[in-house]
Amino acid sequence: MRAQNWATAAIFIAAVALIAAGLRTGEAAEVAQKAVNICLECIGVG
Amino acid sequence: MKEKKRHLIQALAALAQNAHLTGFFTGQIYQGDGKHVCVPGLNCYSCPGAVGACPIGSLQAVIGGRTRNVSYYVAGTILLFGVLFGRLICGFLCPFGFVQDLLHKIPSPKPKVPRRLDRPLRWGKYAALAAVLILPAVLTDPFGIGDPVFCKYVCPAGTLEGGIPLLAHSAALRAAAGFLFSWKLLLLVAVLTASVLVYRPFCKYLCPLGGAYGLLNRFSVCRMEVDRTACTRCGACTRACKMGVDVTGNINSAECIRCGLCARGCPTRAIHYTCGKAVLGRDAKRRET
């Protein structure tokens, strides 16, 4: 396997591990908490 | 792939990411479970149609939150999208990229940005990415909450997709809008006007998500490939590329949005999409034999 393929595999594993770690610490709920309310900063009001 | 087919995919992707269509009529944003998940493109989660979370907005919200200064979930999601598709997402799935594509079709002079200006400006998207990662963690209020600086002061997608539709529905929001909204509206008009003249100026110079995916472009599973045995080095591909990529030199450059214009422009059909070991496109059979 070429070095580039190893790098791709390593990034993929890191990405999945990060997502799993984030889910475990409740980060997805934090994202949803922000996303279900109107973000005043995002729309240029806040 | 024909441009019309790509535009159809872009339209369907924009629709899928903004499938809460009733929101555009009521001014109410979607509040369902889909908002736990980040979408691949730059699509404001305050857009009345948005059914998912914007990765850049989410990243800043988590980093700027009171409880943590590092994001695992959102960073991992961006890494995952990037390592699978790279900037193919910019070319096919990003709603704001689609808007810029359509605007560039308006007949007008299409000036070439001088190289000495273009090259340094391209670093802007990495500066924006650094700002997204650092500023919400360091510029905090007394309660430890950081501003989503990019969303607040720059993001034209938020103004177009969230600000304008929501303000159109709400007198209270219109009353609250002040200098900041005027600034963001001015930026939006500047970006949209520039998009008529220059191909995808926001993607080239300012988008932090494009910067992140660009860094992953050379490692992505789905990529472009030049068949060196078929390539005559005529340069037609590089001339066809609107993103300024040296196609035969570095086809998986951080600037390549995988739009496929180079493949269409190649007289010997030497350029292909590949996804892992699969070669995609109508000449894939010839390529594999």
Description:
The complex is a heterodimer of chains A (46) and B (289). By secondary structure, chain A is mainly alpha-helical. Chain A has one domain (3-43). Chain A has helices at 3-24, 27-35, 40-43. The longest helix of chain A has 22 residues, at 3-24. With 289 residues, chain B is mainly alpha-helical. Chain B has 2 domains: 3-215, no CATH class; 221-288, Alpha-Beta Plaits. Helices cover 53% and strands 4% of the residues of chain B. Chain B is built from 17 helices and 3 strands. In chain B, strand 2 (271-275) and strand 3 (278-280) form a beta hairpin. Chain B is globular, with a radius of gyration of 20 Å. The two termini of chain B are 21 Å apart. Chains A and B meet through helix 1, helix 2 and helix 3 of A and helix 3, helix 4, helix 10 and helix 12 of B.
Helix content of chain B: 40-55%
Number of helices, where a helix is a run of at least 4 consecutive DSSP H or I residues of chain B: 17
Shape of chain A: elongated
Query: What would you call the structural class of chain A?
Result: mainly alpha
Structural class of chain B comes to: mainly alpha
| N-end to C-end Cα span of chain A | 51 Å
> How would a crystallographer describe the biggest sheet of chain B?
3 strands, antiparallel
Q: What does the radius of gyration of chain B come to? A: 20 Å
The percent range for strand residues of chain B is under 5%
Q: What is the number of independent domains of chain B?
A: 2
Detail the poorly predicted runs of chain B.
none
* Gyration radius over CA of chain A: 17 Å
Distance between termini of chain B? 21 Å
What oligomeric arrangement do these chains adopt?
A: heterodimer
Low-confidence stretches of chain A: none
Question: What gross morphology of chain B would you assign?
Answer: globular
User: Please, how many domains of chain A?
Assistant: 1
Largest interface: A-B, 35 and 60 residues
